[in-house]
Give the backbone structure.
Amino acid sequence: MNETLGKQLEEIRRRFAEDLEAANDARSVEDLRIRYFGRKGGLVPALFGELKSIPPEEKKEAGAALNALRAELQSRMDEAIASVSRPASKRKAIDVTLPGRRPRIGHLHPITIVRREIEGVFREMGYSVAAGPEIESDWYNFEALNFEPEHPARDEQDTFYLGADRLLRTHTSNVQIRVMEAVKPPVKLVASGRVYRRDEITLRRSPMFHQIEGLLVDEGIHFGHLKGTLQHFLRKIFSAGTGIRFRPSYFPFTEPSAEVDISCVFCSGKGCGTCSQTGWMEILGCGMVHPKVLENVGIDSERYTGFAFGLGIDRVTMLKFGMPNIRVLFENDVRILSQF
Ligand code: PHE
C-alpha cells in the first residue's frame, strides 16, 4: 500500500470524526457534507484525483482502500443528516421548552369531600364540630341512650364486642352522651366518624362505615326546628328541588322518631330500578331527644328539649357520585379515587 496515501487516509478519517462530533445542527452537518463530499474541492473526491500519481502496481490496492474509506464516511454522514432532521423531541439534546412531567398529587378521598361538605352546611348554621371514640363502653353506645339491657335493638345493631364492657361503637350517637355529660345546653354540634356493625359486605353494606350525627339541645326546641333544619341541609347537599318526607320510626333515644326519605336522585321521584320503583330513598334517622336521655346526662328535661339525627356519609357519597358499590370507597384503587 502506498505509504503517503495511507497516511492521508488516516488523517482524513480522524478529522472527519472530529468535525462530525462538532456538527450538531442541520446547517453545520450540511457544511460538513460539502467540505468532504462536495463535487468541487470536496476532500474525498480530491483523494480519488491523487490516484493518478500512484504507481500502477499499487493502484488496485489504493483504489480499494479509498472506496472503503468513502463508504465508511458516507454512511456516518447519512446518519448525521438523518439525526439532525429528526423532530426535536427525538434528539438527544434537552429541549427546555417542553412542558415538564407533572408529579401525581394526592387529594381528598370522596368520603372526606362529602363529610366536609356536610359539616360546612352545618357550620354555616352555627353548629360546632365534635368527635368521639370508636372504642366505647356499653354506657355511651347503648345504656345512656335508653337501650334497655335486653333491648332487641342491641341485636339489630350487631355489635363487635372487644371484651368486658368494650365494644366498637355501632353509631355516632355515643357522641351525644359524651358531649352532653361535659357541657350544658345550649348544645349545637355535628360529629362524624367510623362506626362498626357485624354485617356481610354487600353492594351497600360494609362492616365499617361512616356516620355523621347532629344534636341540638336548647329551650323551646320542637319538631318543626328539626324538619326545617333537615330540609335546608338535604336541599343543599342534593338539589334545591329534592323531595323530602318523614316516616314514623323507632329509636330508643328519640321520641317521636322518624326516618327521612328523599326523592330518588336518579329518577327524581318517577320510579326506577335503584329506588325499587318507589321514587324515594331512605337517607337518615332522627327524632326529638328522649327525656330519659337528657336525664341520664343531668339535663333538666322540663326546661330543655332537643333534636338529633344520624346519617351514613358513605351512602350520601355513593348517591352524590353515582357509585354502584360501597367497596369502591374502601379498596383504594387510585384509578377510581383520582376521578373525584
Ligand atoms: N343512631 C341511629 C342509627 O345509627 C341514627 C339516629 C341518630 C337516629 C340520631 C335518631 C337520632 O341508626
Remarks:
- The beta strands are 128-130, 135-136, 161-163, 166-168, 187-196, 208-218, 244-251, 254-263, 280-289, 305-312.
- The mean pLDDT is 91.
